[in-house]
TrEMBL record:
Region (Disordered): 1-32
Stretches with biased composition (Polar residues): 1-10
Protein name, per record: Uncharacterized protein
Domain of life: Eukaryota
């Protein structure tokens, strides 16, 4: 009975260890920089769209 309990404890200990490992492997540095660059471009596009919408609203008023 003690051996399966220790085996279960090792399984419970092994499960959280691989979870942070793939999280670290998923975001490499170049892709992360590219994602932040694309995100910044999306923010610029969103700001330009909001400015255009505000300009159209001012023209309509």
């Amino acid at each position: 009975l003690r051996t399966p309990q220790t085996y279960r404890q090792t399984d419970s200990g092994r499960r959280p260890a691989p979870r942070p490992a793939p999280a670290r492997h998923t975001p490499p540095h170049p892709l992360h920089l590219a994602r932040t660059h694309i995100h910044a471009n999306n923010i610029c596009i969103f700001e330009s769209l909001t400015q255009s919408l505000l300009a159209v609203a001012n023209i309509d008023i």
